[in-house]
Hints:
- This protein is mainly alpha-helical.
- The chain is built from 42 helices and 15 strands.
- The longest helix is centred in the middle third of the chain and has 26 residues, at 605-630.
- The relative contact order is 0.03.
Amino acid sequence: MRFAVLGSLTTVDDDGVAVALGGSKPRSLLAVLLLEPNRTVPLDTVMAVLWGEKPPPTATASLHNHVARLRRSLHDAGGTRLRTMPHGLELRVGEGELDRDVFEQRVRRAQEARNREDWEVVERNAGAALALWRGAPFADVPALAGHPVVTFLQEQRLQALECRFEALLHLDRLDGLAAELGVLVKEHPFRETLHRQLMLVLGRTDRRAEALALFRSLRRSLVEELGVEPGPAVQDAHREVLLRSAAVPHRESPAVPHRASAGTPPRLAQLPAPPGGFVGRAEHMAEICTELESGRSRTALAVISGMPGVGKTGLALHIAEQLRHAFPDGQLYLNLHGATPGVAPLEPADALAVLLHGLGVDARRIPCDVGAASALLRSALAPTRTLLVLDDAASVSQIRPLLPAGAGCAVLLTSRRPLATLGAATHVRLEPLSPRDSALLLERASGRSWAAADAEPVARLVALCGHLPLALQVSAARLRSRRTLLVEKLVERLARQEDRLDHLELEDLSVRRSLMAAHEALLGSDDPRDGDAAAALVLIGALDLPEYGAPLMATAMDCTERSAERALDRLAEVALLQEVGWGRYAPHDLVRDFARELAGRPGEQARNAEAAERSLRWYQERLAHCAAVLRPGTGRVPEHAGGRTGTVFTDTAAALAWGDAEAANLLVLAGSGAHGRLGPTRTLELINALFPYLHDRGRVQDLERLTRHAITLARSSGNTAAEGRALGHLASAHYSAGRVRQALLLLDEAVELSEHLADDVARMRHLGNRAALLRELNRDADARATLARCLALRPDHLTPGEEAMLLGHQGYVAELTDLRSALSYHLRSRERAREAGSAVIEQVALCNMGRTHLGLGEPARALQSFEEALRVMAAGVAHWNAERETRLGQAQALRALGRLGQAGEVCTALLQEAATRGDSYGRGLAEYEWGHVLRALGDERAALGRWGSALSALEGTDAQVLADLRALTSAPTVAADG
Length: 978
């Protein structure tokens, strides 16, 4: 067993498997015992940590339960590890089992080696101790914050850091030390050892001005706050920096750059070489070049933003290379390290010092004050035409002091953030490359040529790279370095989701490290929004859905929607999410892979599983509300669960809007299969609840796919009732697509199952639908006989919605023999629908009334019914089958009234909508009616073209107009042959 307290409290067994500690009380119990391992901890001390100074009367009994639960978690059935003592509890911990013990031992060894000046041993032991440190000790046990043991461990960490820095100074290994020490001196403004070490690092890396400024700042703080001067060690470091400064030869110079000779300034050329194999981005390059070259009265500013690895720096360097001629005084380049793994963002004062030094300003004359240094930079650049490329900016506050003001200068910025408040004239947000440019980049960077046979695997490879330039560069480097590596083999490796990021990492290029830097920056921020955003990214990996909105994330994070919205916005700001619609966010595929990795880390699974379960319940509850609103009177509206479901949908429009927003996620959840995240029973329930939304929106293909899936699940799990429902839903999908005979066969199966289950209500519904299908096929006798069987099953009490549907079936069957009687049924159906509050059934009834009026030769009254149905639709109802039939009937009524122009407009709109929905059956019916409108207008040739298109679309269906279409399209051929 291993216990880790240097950070959040974690425990793993001997196999390295994380031990679930349960709730906060067992975790706090274990923590307080680990404060004094192998010693008896008094019960009063334990209770104070668990319940505060005033434990409840039940505390003793509860403590026994928590002890028992903790023993189970630690597999300590015999109580040999967690022992009950006469006056307290004792946790037995073996040697090396507690990271705190190992940490303290390593720190002692480092200090002993420091005393004898064995610097390699100091660095090795201090580094090993610090590697165990994951954060504040017992970070997830708030009751221990400020405990003497925690304070002692934090002091031990500082001593370990000081030992390590001292060793690295003696070993002359200074890379990266300035950034680490810079953070620490800000956290510990009076700790002289850290200030001394940072002064020495700065002095020995040619940053003497900063070292001297640091000394002045420390001395001022000590004198003003404590009334003391810096100690001897700091004074010695100060003298070393002064001696080094005096030893550096320099010329007497003003604060502005020295000119080499009159009228000939030294040309700056600091740009790194642009990356090879650059492709695409022509439009962005032209836009930015135009802005930076154009005449103006102030400094031109352009910003390139985008997600990690999208090619911001490469584009900036290529643009800067093209603009050399426009800036004769040269180009300054500075990497601001806004998102460099392991490197803190450059402070404005440091950035100004680097820029001014590049301009030739003597380091001794660079002001320590940011405002003064910024003014000096503006003065130095004012008379020049200089291009500044500021790469990887962290924030607007980092950038503002670095901006020149002269009209001759231009600034090109890159950042993961949009930096919107800078007021840049041009802002380009880079997206991943197009598939074509991605393949071209892969070809150029790999040095390979593709044959025609390579097209498919190359397309697959660039897609697996997410069309991201960084990922493409890594893949290209692998192909270049290993000539025997086939594209197909690399595709196979990248196709394994769990290994993908491993294969997108090579030497100094790494998609994972680039994304990790962004995540760690959020974790390390003092802004609460950033912590929430980091947590949200982990949950995005745990949920693994196509899109995310604030209500879903509020459920997953167990917080308010406002907090969740801020977290999602923050992830979008730092380019870890893309905003795909208002309030809707989706990660890039590789960010999704990274988020899955975060969610799969040890210690995260239990918390993430709880969040995922909350989210799944939220979807089930909200979808049940949606179905109840779309089909009122067919079932009970579910209760709120813990207040998390939010406001009930106020009307059909709100329910459909929610369905539109969440459809992609719902389809993924519903299609997850018997062994997916929901299991067969909940998947069947979800598909059943999805039916009203998919049916009303006319999403026939999704409906067919899911109902077939539901039938398979129901049969494999022996759920006959669910199988019957799914058969009825699949029949509806076939009917919507014009496949009436197939729908009839499915309903026959559904009727048989309902008879087997003795479910008369389900059998009544199936028989009513069957009668309507038989009427559609003009099988009058069969339709009436089936309707009679349906009505015989009618219970004594029906809801208004169910009665409205039965009246609709009666009216539809009656249309074959008695149109007036049919009209009466449809009118009563509408009345019952309005009583039930079902706008969908009302719309169907109005459409049926309009069609019946057409049959009676009453086009004006028919048009009134159709237009009233459309007004119901305008209120938010969108039952696609009814809308399609209503618009067709509207066009027929207008044609019958001689209003041919309006009829053509209706046909055009219906055709466009059917094409958008992928409804070939609706498209064929619209083409058929449009052909009749065109014939009435005298354009026989155009009419024949429409009828030909209609015939192609309707072949294979049971459309009633097929026979007429075949006759219409064959007539010209017969005439020509004659």
